[in-house]
């Protein structure tokens, strides 16, 4: 079985709750309509701007940059990686 077919098979079996990441949600910061108009890249930029503002108040916030705002994690979705990869991810993070 190819890697793609294995991933598609996992997606077929994946719980709907785990895949709900892509749905539009309201938040503490935005109403439902506004929150639905943003994508992951927008939220990433908003988060970086917020972190920059907090760093002006306290340089210790700089330590959170690599942990919370790693660019490659924007497209990361735990629902499509294997159980072993999830376990490894949990150990690292």
TrEMBL record:
Coiled coil: none annotated. It is found in: Nucleus, Nucleolus. The keyword Nucleus applies. One of its GO terms (cellular component) is small-subunit processome. Keywords: Nucleus, Ribonucleoprotein, Ribosome biogenesis, rRNA processing. GO terms for biological process: maturation of SSU-rRNA from tricistronic rRNA transcript (SSU-rRNA, 5.8S rRNA, LSU-rRNA); positive regulation of transcription by RNA polymerase I. GO terms for molecular function: snoRNA binding. Its main location: nucleus. PANTHER family: BAP28 (PTHR13457), HEAT REPEAT-CONTAINING PROTEIN 1 (PTHR13457:SF1). Involved in nucleolar processing of pre-18S ribosomal RNA. Belongs to the HEATR1/UTP10 family. This is HEAT repeat-containing protein 1. It comes from Meloidogyne incognita.
């Amino acid at each position: 079985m190819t890697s793609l077919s294995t991933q598609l098979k996992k997606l077929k079996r994946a719980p709907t709750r785990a895949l709900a990441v892509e749905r539009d949600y309201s938040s503490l910061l935005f109403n439902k309509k506004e929150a639905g108009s943003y994508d992951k890249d927008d939220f990433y930029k908003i988060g970086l701007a917020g972190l920059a503002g907090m760093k002006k108040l306290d340089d210790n916030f700089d330590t959170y940059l690599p942990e919370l705002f790693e660019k490659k994690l924007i497209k990361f979705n735990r629902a499509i990686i294997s159980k072993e990869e999830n376990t490894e991810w949990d150990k690292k993070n």
